[in-house]
């Protein structure tokens, strides 16, 4: 796997990544919270990957050496799980397993903010959060940005770009997702349009996007993979919204849609635009 | 927020509470069990509130100071989580954040019964349980009732009334829900009719009612808010039953219905009756 | 409850077991993982049983003495939960409560493999896993088989038969399920055909089958009960597949189907065959 993208991520590169995902069925190791563990696993199974929640410190490092990708999600941490985060992230970094940091609540909550700072030393392959979380994580890396209150994902782009010092790619999710990474040596930013306003009304969809990102990092470079995960989500959520009567029926319809979306659907429907600063 | 109701809770006061819920989108902090964490969060999002599961002792007190309402649910406690219960309940009481105790399994299980007794010292704003649990909790408060085996929610009304010494309002849920609280200085009892027999066939619906109660306590006094949560549940469950083929499809249909129910639906359809002892 | 089957388990014995399940509504105690806790409980409620997740070491032994059946699932263990596993399994064995071991990940993961070896000393009433897990567990019992890589459930039949030294019945689940047990003193093997390829695309269905097995062990001998659980699953999953548009909508449809399947449906549709080695 090259560590930077050859071309700016696009609908075409997302389609190719989905083809590879479906062919190789990557195994994700998720260390995640009690709210998302079930739905996140169903998202991975539906999309075309598999998942194992191995979140204890006795086995986390071992498994991070054999998984295709690792998700570390700070949603409902315990001391026990925090020890596993450290083991998994360190091992993933050492062995070259791609890993995703999902810094849920970082910035707003003191203990997990400290956990995130420690995890950053293991250089996540990608970081996925909302705008506020990305801004907060950027403040931890010594870039001196502090914890901005970034209401909009677009506002977090400078923070995301700053995080390319420690991560291969970074996304700030929102109604429009912003994803930054490197094409060759040059930092670039793209936005992923589309999606559904029902998506944020179902819990664990953000966490699931982090998990799906870990799956895509097993089959593509960080920037290309992170964009593909967001594109897969956006296209599937539009399809699901057509088959839903509200947030309750959207949740299973979204899983159906993640499963039914094809690479050609991404080619046709993914809306990915390069953002020139 | 006044601490007692101005009038006996009714369909009208429930409708007004729902209007305020939808306008203010209260943030609930849930400390809950591994069975309910996902569904309960989706219930809050669907109904018009938001939720953060902050259940570790490092952050629970901090967050109880900023949340709109707190749920402490004893479903699957760990030692780690029990320390967070204590932190959250104490802080909520000290800072005036309304908090709900859901005493899952209290009476029948020894350790959590002791946990509940300790939590009662922090004077929950409301307590929600089934009849047996409410009777058991009343036995903890020194009223000398012991652990009755209250098969029917109606049988728990004396226990619920006794608990008004420590809580602002108390409900015993069942096919018919009984809710007690104060109007001015006078204890009153109402029953909430309706609902669906599919509701108890979906796990975590009771826990979700506790969480929704915490959301309503952020926008109404304890008695009015607790009744509104039960009325919202009853009306939504009737609607959901019309769109379900069994308990499996009822679960997402219930979320859709919680989202679609309007204040006027509560005005028209909520069946709340004052019970004169 | 006799400890061995009077006749080879069949569609008829499964139908009778389902009748007893619906009449008696057994209470299962589940010690399970954060991925499956919600869905597994909904499976039990839909099928006709009830569930309590009592997985802390302060209460696990107490409850194992009063539950109808106990599930110990090794999916996402913590040190705290592992202590509860030991308490529940030991007490279930001592008091004669049937208990099921679901050895998730055993063989592939070092710590839980050691946990499983300790739990085997409390002689599970039944063991349910996939082929690899059953082969791995057999390697723990001193039979000297080691950890085979059994890709197919059929390949795990010799391992399952070896485990009859410590367990009343054993199943290896897959596209075709193999279940072994004793009829009188003689070991026998049956296979349960049918099912849906959507079933493994929904997480927690395997764990839920373990939980449903614990419910059936409360109303039948180990071999008969374990086969009935698999037959109930297979018939319901076929029905659910007809009402699904993908893995997302399959999940609630499967719960509906578990609830709607009748004993006569099992008589007509369950496909259970004796395997002569």
UniProtKB/TrEMBL annotation, chains A, B, C:
Pathway: Cofactor biosynthesis; thiamine diphosphate biosynthesis; 4-methyl-5-(2-phosphoethyl)-thiazole from 5-(2-hydroxyethyl)-4-methylthiazole: step 1/1
Alphabetized NCBIfam families for the sequence: PRK09355.1
Function noted in UniProt: Catalyzes the phosphorylation of the hydroxyl group of 4-methyl-5-beta-hydroxyethylthiazole (THZ).
GO biological process, one term: thiamine biosynthetic process
InterPro entries attached to this UniProt entry: Hyethyz_kinase, Ribokinase-like
Residues that hold ATP according to the record: 128, 173
Official protein name in the record: Hydroxyethylthiazole kinase
Keywords in alphabetical order: ATP-binding, Kinase, Magnesium, Metal-binding, Nucleotide-binding, Thiamine biosynthesis, Transferase
Recorded catalytic activity of this chain's protein: 5-(2-hydroxyethyl)-4-methylthiazole + ATP = 4-methyl-5-(2-phosphooxyethyl)-thiazole + ADP + H(+)
E.C. designation(s): 2.7.1.50
Enzyme class: transferase
Record family assignment: Belongs to the Thz kinase family.
Source organism per UniProt: Actinocorallia herbida
Single GO molecular function: ATP binding
Residues annotated for substrate binding in this entry: 204
Cofactor(s) the record lists: Mg(2+)
Stretches that traverse the bilayer: none
One Pfam match: HK
